[in-house]
Amino acid sequence: MTRIQKQNMAWGYLFILPAIIGLSVFIVAPMIFSLIVSFTDWDMVSSFHWISFQNYSNILTEDINFWNSIKVTFFYAILQVPCVQIFAFLLANLLNSKIKGLSFFRTVFYIPSIFPFIAVAILWMFIYNPDFGLLNQLLGVFHIPPQDWLVSKSLVLPSLVFMSMWMCGGAMVIYLAALQGVPNHLYEAVEMDGGGRIRKFWHVTVPMLSPIIFFNSLMGLIGVMQTFNEAYVMTNGGPDKQTYFYLFMIYREAFTEGNMGYASALAWILFIILAGLSITIFKFSRSFVHYEAGGK
Predict the structure, then answer these.
(1) Which pTM value belongs to this model?
(2) Which long-range contacts (CB under 8 A, 24 or more apart) does 203-208 make?
(3) For residue 79, which of 182, 201, 165 has the smallest C-alpha distance?
(4) pLDDT tens digits along 102-113
(5) How many other CB atoms are found less than 10 A from the CB of residue 53?
(6) Does the N terminus or the C terminus of the chain have fewer Cβ atoms within 10 A?
(7) How far is Cα 267 from Cα 73, in angstroms, rounded to an integer?
(8) DSSP 122-142
(9) Which residues contact 144 (CB under 8 A, 6 or more apart)?
(10) 267/273 Cα distance (integer angstroms)
(11) Dihedral pair phi/psi, residue 126, rounded to 5°
């Protein structure tokens, strides 16, 4: 290796040093610390007391709230991820058309995704208010009785899903950027074969965007498995623990009950679940994700 190459390598390491330090101090070190704490009964006040795998054993065999939070979180993910991704994908297709005021509409649909969630939650709590909420006022026009959107056990999760769809601007922008990269000659080839819009959509748009659909869906799944703000701000885990999401349970165990060791064990179980889901999805993605290079 020449002296210039060594200097370039030294400068490269120097530039990535802040990122390495930040990663080590704020991510790797806390993860290692939480792993150690998960084998203790530490309550953030008294000293550490090593209890080995007792936290994990109690979680899997005795904690009813754990299994309820897993069920609620997975059910919410099954509802939320497809609805948000399909809505964002269809919205991106509409915004990819050549119409007047296109920039305005793109901005309007993207803005909700950059609002602070607390502001969004308060807005939707007013919309869902059973007494004077905008949604119940709209239903009243059609003589439909008012609904308890965030209090009803059957309506609370669909209500949160609908709110998430309103905030799909980030996924929409990614889909929109990918749509603008689809070669026009593929659509022209379908037209020459007598195909219309539906065939263009299924035989060109969907296959060409399958890597983006896969990426957005996977990131959406990872994000929704860590749902917290909705339960903390809007429902407090209710009604009847129908929104007692997994991350909300971790928060309650750590900062309400003071069981930091138990909460750390819960966090590591979540990490294992997410890692397992990601590996499984990547394994099966080869059958439905198509790349421009011709591979899967």
Answers:
(1) 0.91
(2) 205/93, 205/179, 207/290, 208/178, 208/182, 208/290, 208/292
(3) 165
(4) 888 889 999 999
(5) 11
(6) N
(7) 14
(8) HHHHHHT-TTT-HHHHHHHHT
(9) none
(10) 10
(11) -70, -40
Burial class (CB in 10 A: 0-12, 13-18, 19+), 24: exposed
Instruction: Find out whether 180 and 229 touch, Cβ atoms under 8 Å.
Output: no
The model's pLDDT over 147-201, given as tens digits with 9 standing for 90+, comes to 999 999 999 999 999 999 999 999 999 999 999 988 888 888 888 888 888 898 8
Distances 252 to 186, 233, 271 between C-alpha atoms, Å: 53, 13, 18
Taking phi first (over 0 means left), then psi (-120 to 50 degrees means alpha), and beta for anything else, what does residue 107 get?
Answer: alpha
CATH number of 63-287: 1.10.3720.10
User: Is 227 within 8 Å of 73 (Cβ atoms)?
Assistant: yes
Residues of the chain with CATH 1.10.3720.10: 63-287
Side chain identity, residue 12: G
If phi > 0 it is left, if psi is from -120 to 50 it is alpha, else beta; for residue 196 that is: beta
Separation between Cα atoms, residue 96 and residue 81, nearest integer Å: 22
Q: For residue 128, count other CB atoms closer than 10 A to its CB.
A: 23
C-alpha dihedral, 78 to 81 to 83 to 87, nearest 10°: -170
Per-residue b or e along 164-186, where b marks 16 or more CB atoms closer than 10 Å to that residue's CB:
bbbbbbbbbbbbbebbeebeeee
Handedness of CA 80, 85, 86, 91 (dihedral sign): positive
The answer for residues whose C-beta is within 8 angstroms of residue 164's C-beta and 6 or more apart is 80, 83, 84, 224
Tokens at residue 46, please? 């008294």
What percent of the chain is predicted at pLDDT more than 70? Answer: 98
